[in-house]
Amino acid sequence: TILVLDFGSQYSHLITRRLRELNVYSEMLPCTQKLSELSWIPKGVILSGGPYSVYWDEAPHVDPAVYDLNVPILGICYGLQEIAWQFGKNVLAGEKREFGHAYLTVERHGDGDAGGHVDTLFKGLEDDMEVWMSHGDKLSHLPDDFITIATTSNAPFAGMAHKSKPLYGIQFHPEVTHTPKGKFLLKNFAVDICKARTDWTMGKFVDQEIARIRALVGGKGQVIGAVSGGVDSTVAAKLMQEAIGERFHAVLVDNGVLRLNEAKQVKETLTAGLGINLTVVDASERFLGRLKGVMDDPEKKRKIIGNTFIEVFQETAKKIAEEAHGSDKAGEIEWLLQGTLYPDVIESISFKGPSATIKTHHNVGGLLEGMHLKLIEPLRELFKDEVRELGTNLGIPEDLVWRHPFPGPGIAIRILGEVTAEQVRIAREADYIFIEEIKAAGLYRNISQAFAALLPVKAVGVMGDKRVHDQVIALRAVETSDFMTADWYPFDGAFLKKVSRRIVNEVNGVCRVVYDITSKPPGTIEME
Ligand code: XMP
């Protein structure tokens, strides 16, 4: 395992990601991690970039015990400055920022006084390479016993290495795609210098994870978990089913604001298709009853749906627990399954702390209250695309594996204004047509998320020979890699024309369709 210590750069998690692409297992921990508290010894350590200057009082510093591990260390950007600072304090100059592409010249030392190891980082790479810079400070001198291994016109010490120890620092970011050969550099470090194993594959992950779940839960233990029909919860559920079969109890709460026919479809796929032990609870009326009269406060909708969900889930869990306990095959239900992914884990442990909450994203964290359940999170080491790969590996159908994300509060936050059964019908039918056409046009995977929203206004139209006064559907489709920023999708006119015609013709109560051309920021992806 390669340990990445995170100093808060926006690119830190990409280091872990790139290493895993090289089949090298890697974990990221905050830079303040005490090394004596680690239960494993890494094969190598990478110090990430970060938004600080080592001169600032509040600047974070790595536990100096990292140098006593006697494993190779690579500092990237702030990481390089951190090494330089720890090896000789006054080596930095806070100068003007450098941001963007730069051309790097590699300096090779042959077998000379440095013994050859210093060249390994750039082994097999061209002498000139394009790199991505993003830093404020840079080195003005080398610390003692370090030599230069790369330069740029602006940074004379863009790369350095210790003469006798496997310590390296680079000023640029090898983990981003703007450094085209960066992955080879990371491979040189992880495989050639650290001698990390390159046997991390998804198949291996499945076997390991199933064994780990069985050991954790034991021969009788039972697990409960909510599923939504989305890729994360389905993959987590299938993994549990493979590990402990019927002793995993999946619960799908129909909150009345799922997509058209969704509860029925999810049930079919999960039970008949994947053999998962699933209970579907239709609580639509309770949810819609509580949403009645909530007009213009989206956060209130979220809270109502979140709290009602917890309530229904708890009731169901108690029922299942009683039944399970009564039968002889069973032990107590002691575990709660959550489909937490690595980016969520990083977000909550990162040195920066959790990022500011713009909307309260409801998740099932609060479910634990009063139930004394222990958490089991089989996906917590994986990124989204790895979850998809794992899903395919486990035989989950393609259309589910590639499904667009769908918010917990469902189409309630896509119905602007009051949520009523009739508004739900309109939003659902329009959404169904939009997604059906996107799939038919072969665009579904190019788009990150798409849906129809219902605006709380009426407009005039003419249908047949009659004047109508009906509602307006807004279509939204975005492309994004991280859902933090997003661009609206540039459909061609003929496609939009077709969708608009179908929605107005087929959905009773709609006389106009508009397309949302707001990016995020300043918009958000959802309308509420
Ligand atoms: P926004 O609208 O914040 O959406 O740009 C970013 C991503 O988060 C999803 N989203 C939610 N998911 N509960 C969820 O489970 C929520 O309350 C919620 N609000 C937004 C949204 O669908 C998009 O994928």
From TrEMBL:
Enzyme class: ligase
SUPFAM superfamilies: Adenine nucleotide alpha hydrolases-like, Class I glutamine amidotransferase-like, GMP synthetase C-terminal dimerisation domain
Keyword annotations of the record: ATP-binding, Glutamine amidotransferase, GMP biosynthesis, Ligase, Nucleotide-binding, Purine biosynthesis
Binding positions (ATP): 228-234
Domain of life: Eukaryota
Ligase as UniProt keyword: yes
Pathway(s) per entry: Purine metabolism; GMP biosynthesis; GMP from XMP (L-Gln route): step 1/1
Organism per entry: Zopfia rhizophila CBS 207.26
Alphabetical list of InterPro entries matching this protein: Class_I_gatase-like (IPR029062), GATASE (IPR017926), GMP_synth_C (IPR001674), GMP_synth_GATase (IPR004739), GMP_synthase (IPR022955), GMPS_ATP_PPase_dom (IPR025777), NAD/GMP_synthase (IPR022310), Rossmann-like_a/b/a_fold (IPR014729)
Pfam families named in the record: GATase, GMP_synt_C, NAD_synthase
Protein name: GMP synthase [glutamine-hydrolyzing]
All residue ranges annotated as the GMPS ATP-PPase domain in the record: 200-403
EC code(s) of this entry: 6.3.5.2
The protein's assembly and partners: Homodimer.
Record field: catalytic activity: XMP + L-glutamine + ATP + H2O = GMP + L-glutamate + AMP + diphosphate + 2 H(+)
Cell compartments where the protein resides: Cytoplasm, Cytosol
Main location class: cytoplasm
HAMAP family with a match to the protein in the record: GMP_synthase
One of the record's GO molecular function terms: GMP synthase activity
